[in-house]
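*** Query protein ***
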Amino acid sequence: MDLSILIVTWNSAAEIGACLRSLRERLEGRISFETIVIDNASSDSTVEVVKRVAPDAHLIETGTNEGFGRACNRGIAEASGRRILLLNPDCEVGEGLPELLAWLDANPRVGIATGWIVGSDGRIQRNWGRTPPSLWTEILEHTTLAKLAPSIFGRHWLGVGDSREIRFVPAISGMAMILDSKLARDLGGFDPAYFMYLEDFDLCWRAREHGAAIARNPVATILHHGDRSAARVGDASVARSWPYQSMYLFLRRHRSRLQAEAFLWLVRLGLAMRLAVSRLQSRLGGADSTSKQAEYRGILRRLGSWDRATMGPAEEAA
């Protein structure tokens, strides 16, 4: 089989139908493929939509929200294709995926790849790939310099100033990631310590250490409508804490404990300052920001409650 397509869903009823239909429209009769949907205990009609739109899909129901990486690992264990496409449910496959697979056949050193990823507005998405995070890149992000002057301070996002050409890169996003099946299994899949965010860049880091190349070939187009999973979480502080916890873990794993602890200190300082400003604005008769203050407090509480010792490398956690 040419390709196993893995889609992790969580309350994805609004978009999973279009995603699955795009696979049928673009791939049937051109390559051999299977679709594996791993549902993380959706409370909406996601499972029913999958069964209706793609009755031949292999549906795995986890029974609980395991996060992205663990759910992907379930699918990797079941996949029978020579290659695996990890695809977000809010993505749709456009033209050129069979041609990208043929290019990978001709370039076996490439173990991880993606295509030309555009948003709903048709413009290239800046976060399709990036250079590996460091304390410096996160300072640029959290001081908003990366957004204010992206051409100067946001170059760690590979979509900034991008051109439509083949590129060999350090890391790509898991929103539409093609993996060599053997490589995925040799690496042990995703690190389950990451609940959501940065598990894809961690995998790319380990793949490069393994000797694999990572590439973007724009012959294939992927439409990505946006990051919607976090927006569905009832408690905003829960979703907002995930990126911070994942970044701490990544820096601890691949940079140094000093960088990880400095990052966490800067995040806490920034949140405390935002909370103080919000309180002051409320006292001065400004807009009601009670919910925002609760969110900041919730994030600070969550960052102070998890055991950082277990977030480091296995030998340090032992």
